[in-house]
């Protein structure tokens, strides 16, 4: 396992702060993920990667990988321009300009699929398709959250919560001359995106594991029932998408699911250490440099304040990775332009030495850096641009 000296040596000639991608670890993570796919396809969640070159590296690594789950229309169009096809935009598109862009690709027969969950979405797409002389491929997003004891366990996204509601949307879409049903998606965020092995919250882990078991039983039944009902109507679906990194091991076992989405598992950011079902090494991280030593055991570095999105908490701060035992200081955290690190271990740290950090989430780090410096066998062998490095900013 790469240690502090490994990264210090590998990154010694790279200007800090810098982000890196360890290609050897990425290969291990890809291997582990394909091994858990249970003969299902894996769609890559681009929001958790945010680099064209990395997306291509993963897609080319195995035939198990098929298609990209995009996060905006602009991004899907951008990826199409780089030769990607089978682009599923996982979140509804409303903007007229964006719908026009997608229509243009649809007229050229590209596989670019938009998400719907309501009659309002269907009306909007029909109007745009009529004006732009195209048909849209649509995917229906079904809600797979659970409500237990007055607690909402899951996310607030699709209003489609019942079989009847799903069939009403399906019937309306099948009756349209402007839409073609391409697939169904259900994202069980409460399983895939909720940590259940956080060492800082041992009692809560048990509650979450209990809720996950209960919710899984419910959602598996619900997805199965809805997909079977759609099939009984004679509608053929190109794909049934589910899951994420945190649920790959179980979503890939569902008979009606044809593909599972995975994004974060490739980089394995800080938050993904806290799952019971898998253990992976971090393939991506960043290095900040010690620029001042205000007192003994405190090493203040330039940069570092890259906080992750979502409900805020200690777990959304960057994680100090190496040297082992180094940590953030509660009063200051990771700062806007400087980050003090507490370290009282055996390694002699001095000005100019790096502190190796990890972002809490996967793709968001790439919005802070132009490049991912590529490390293989302990040496820098090149660099990949991120979306930011390509001068792109989607969300
Ligand atoms: C619709 C959808 N599917 C899948 C995922 C899983 O992505 P990851 O594997 O990066 O956790 C997400 C993440 O938020 C999502 O929104």
TrEMBL record:
The protein's matches in InterPro entries, at most eight in alphabetical order, are given as:
Ala_racemase_N, D-amino_acid_metab_enzyme, PLP-binding_barrel
- Molecular function as annotated in GO: D-serine ammonia-lyase activity
Q: Which Pfam families match?
A: Ala_racemase_N
Provide the GO biological process annotations.
Answer: D-serine catabolic process
Q: Which residues form the Alanine racemase N-terminal domain?
A: 22-264
Q: What is this protein called?
A: Amino acid aldolase
């Amino acid at each position: 396992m790469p240690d502090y000296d490994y990264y210090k040596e590998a990154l010694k000639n790279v200007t800090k702060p810098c982000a890196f991608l360890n290609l050897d670890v990425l290969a291990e993570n890809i291997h582990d993920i394909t091994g858990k796919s249970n003969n299902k396809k894996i769609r890559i969640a681009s929001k958790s990667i945010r680099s064209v070159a990395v997306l291509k590296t993963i897609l080319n690594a195995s035939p198990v990988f098929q298609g990209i789950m995009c996060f905006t229309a602009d991004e899907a169009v951008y990826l199409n321009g780089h030769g990607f096809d089978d682009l599923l935009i996982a979140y509804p598109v409303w903007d007229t300009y964006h719908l026009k862009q997608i229509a243009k690709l649809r007229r050229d027969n590209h596989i670019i699929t938009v998400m719907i969950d309501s009659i309002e979405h269907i009306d909007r797409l029909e109007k745009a398709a009529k004006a732009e002389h195209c048909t849209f491929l649509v995917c229906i997003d079904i809600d797979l959250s659970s409500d237990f004891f007055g607690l909402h366990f899951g996310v607030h996204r699709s209003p489609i919560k019942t079989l009847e509601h799903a069939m009403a949307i399906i019937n309306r879409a099948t009756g349209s001359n402007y839409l073609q049903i391409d697939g169904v998606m259900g994202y069980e965020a409460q399983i895939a995106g909720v940590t259940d092995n956080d060492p800082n919250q041992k009692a809560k882990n048990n509650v979450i594991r209990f809720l996950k078991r209960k919710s899984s039983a419910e959602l598996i039944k619900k997805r199965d029932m809805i997909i079977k009902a759609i099939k009984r109507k004679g509608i053929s679906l190109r794909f049934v998408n589910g899951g994420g990194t945190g649920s790959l091991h179980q979503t890939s076992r569902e008979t009606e699911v044809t593909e599972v989405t995975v994004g974060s598992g490739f980089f394995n950011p800080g938050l993904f250490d806290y799952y019971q079902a898998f253990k992976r090494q971090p393939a991506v991280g960043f290095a900040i440099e010690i620029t001042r030593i205000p007192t003994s055991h405190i090493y203040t570095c330039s940069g570092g304040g890259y906080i992750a999105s979502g409900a805020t908490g200690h777990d959304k701060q960057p994680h100090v990775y190496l040297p082992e035992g180094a940590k953030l200081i509660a009063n200051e955290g990771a700062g806007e332009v400087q980050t003090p690190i507490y370290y009282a271990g055996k390694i002699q740290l001095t000005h100019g030495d790096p502190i190796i950090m990890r972002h809490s989430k996967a793709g968001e780090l790439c919005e802070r850096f132009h490049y991912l410096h590529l490390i293989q066998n302990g040496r820098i062998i090149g660099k990949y641009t991120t979306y930011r490095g390509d001068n792109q900013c989607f969300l």
